[in-house]
From TrEMBL:
Keywords associated with the record: Membrane, Transmembrane, Transmembrane helix
Lineage of producing organism: Bacteria, Bacillati, Bacillota, Clostridia, Neomoorellales
Residue ranges constituting the DUF112 domain according to the UniProt record: 20-438
Bilayer-spanning residue ranges: 20-39, 108-132, 138-158, 165-184, 259-280, 319-343, 355-384, 396-427, 473-491
InterPro entries according to UniProt: DUF112_TM
UniProt protein name: Tripartite tricarboxylate transporter TctA family protein
């Protein structure tokens, strides 16, 4: 009952006009940040952090938090409409969301994404409210060894997301891992794979790779394809929103995505991206129509979009309960607390109870605002698909180039954008999937730093990785999955040979 009374008190503070304006400003900026490629929630929060200096501590933090979880909503829009992820977690949404848009169900996909984000975001906030102190203790047990085991398990579980050729999948994973090693060695301080190019010393931005591989390559595909008026059929107003069948198929993925996202959000690393991939993989396995995945399955939008929004709430648990920011965006939030003289950690709830519960209540309100703000705009966003390609493609190119340049204000990044666009174009022609490359790129750094740091910790005894409870469990599961995949491959191969022998 104490939790309920505290939450009610938080709502009383969060529904003041000033708090509502701060929350609305945050979620609108967050949504726009998610839609526009390149900036991302971290960049937007960093740019607007000085704006919060003159504000009341609660109002400033409410605005920054609104930008953080609001960007999870907006990132799905361009992913669905033009196959361009607005931020990292939306890469998975591209797989089926864009296919739905090509079938005239882009509006339905965006509505499902908005509703799923609201449902899972609310579940995540409930989890944050009820379990923050206890669950955060689990996240603290992760050291370098556990990071390595998590990355290995993640690579095995998540690499073959679309179920295409295992050989092609692994090639793309290894390419992604190689790309993640470009830059300055974090331990030795020497250059790796930079070929003397100064701009490569800081590594390759994930956003550049994603925008080039998924976005600009799609522009090249459209430009290089046969001339056509529009690849999307005209739809009636009622078809802009999901029908009964799509809603029915989306409910369970939304709920499962909410739980998966919150749990993964407790862990260090790129939790929004990992949770969306895990959700996608699970929905494909549980679906009665797995053959539809990659071709426009609504579950492939509902699950991942729900998971990445719930993960945003989960990532707030170690931040608020222990003062540990496990992502770049939550690190900016820590700065927001500190500049207002508020120390996050175990004493936050005790020393600043009003602030804590006001922020929690504002997250509930922000979720409602995002739903109200996004659903009416579905028709407006979907109308983008009716623009002739000869007009739409140059606009997409212009926005993408501006977004890529804004990351580091570097012309070199534009060359990288073009290179990855060409690679993505020819990779699609050769039936190579881009998702495994993204998995390798995102998890590559975690894999390397975890392995090297872990070996130092255990003094070179690799078997200690298997003896630690958390890392050992994950590594043994990874080995079992590899054995299972090999046995299944051999069995399928032998079955095919036997069938061909019988037929002849």
């Amino acid at each position: 009952m104490e939790v309920i009374s505290n939450l009610i008190h938080g709502f009383q503070l969060a529904i003041t006009p000033q708090a509502l304006v701060a929350c609305l400003l945050g979620v609108i900026i967050g949504t726009i940040t998610g839609v526009l490629p390149g900036l991302g929630p971290t960049g937007a929060m960093a740019l607007l952090l000085p704006l919060s200096f003159g504000m009341d501590p609660a109002l400033g933090i409410i605005m920054l938090a609104g930008i953080y979880y609001g960007s999870m909503y907006g990132g799905s829009t361009t992913a669905i409409l033009v196959n361009m992820p607005g931020e990292t977690a939306s890469v998975v949404t591209c797989i089926d969301g864009y296919q739905m848009a090509k079938k005239g169900r882009g509006g339905a996909a965006m509505a499902v994404a908005a509703i799923g984000s609201f449902v899972a975001g609310t579940l995540g906030i409930v989890g944050l409210m009820l379990f923050a102190p206890k669950l955060a203790l689990f996240a603290v047990k992760f050291g370098p060894v556990e990071f390595f085991a998590l990355a290995v398990l993640g690579l095995i579980l998540l690499s073959n997301v679309t179920g295409k050729s295992m050989l092609k999948t692994m090639l793309m994973v290894f390419l992604g891992i190689m790309l993640s090693t470009i830059g300055i060695d974090p331990q030795e301080g020497v250059e790796r794979l930079t070929f003397g190019i100064l701009n490569l010393q800081q590594g390759i931005e994930f956003t550049i790779v994603a925008m080039g591989f998924f976005g600009i390559s799609e522009v090249l595909r459209v430009v290089g394809g046969p001339c056509e008026k529009s690849s999307v059929p005209n739809v009636r107003f009622r078809d802009l929103y999901p029908n009964k069948e799509e809603i029915k198929r989306s409910i369970n993925p939304m709920l499962r995505g909410g739980v998966i996202g919150f749990i993964i959000g407790l862990l260090p690393g790129p939790v929004n991206f990992i949770s969306s991939l895990v959700s996608y993989r699970m929905e494909k396995r549980l679906s009665k129509h797995p053959e539809e995945f990659g071709k426009g399955a609504v579950e492939g939008v509902a699950g991942p979009e729900s998971a990445n929004n719930s993960a945003a709430a989960g990532a707030m648990v170690p931040l608020l309960a222990l003062g540990l920011p496990f992502t770049a965006a939550t690190a900016i939030l820590v700065s927001g607390f500190l500049v207002h003289g508020v120390a996050v950690g175990p004493l936050l709830i005790r020393q600043h109870a009003d602030l804590f519960w006001t922020v929690i209540a504002s997250m509930y309100i922000g979720n409602v605002m995002l739903l109200i703000f996004n659903l009416p705009l579905v028709g407006v966003f979907a109308s983008v698909l009716k623009i002739p390609p000869k007009i739409l493609m140059p606009i997409i190119m212009l926005i993408t180039i501006a977004g890529a340049y804004s990351i580091n204000n570097s012309i070199f990044d534009l060359w990288l954008l073009l290179i990855f666009a060409v690679i993505g174009y020819f990779a699609e022609k050769a039936d190579f999937d881009g998702a495994p490359l993204v998995v390798g790129l995102v998890l590559g750094k975690t894999l390397e730093t975890g392995l090297r740091g872990g070996l130092v910790l255990v003094q070179g005894d690799i078997w200690q990785f298997f003896k630690r409870p958390i890392s050992g469990t994950m590594l043994y599961i990874a080995i079992l999955l590899i054995v299972y995949s090999v046995v299944r491959f051999i069995y399928a191969k032998n079955k095919k040979v036997n069938t061909n022998t019988v037929e002849t």
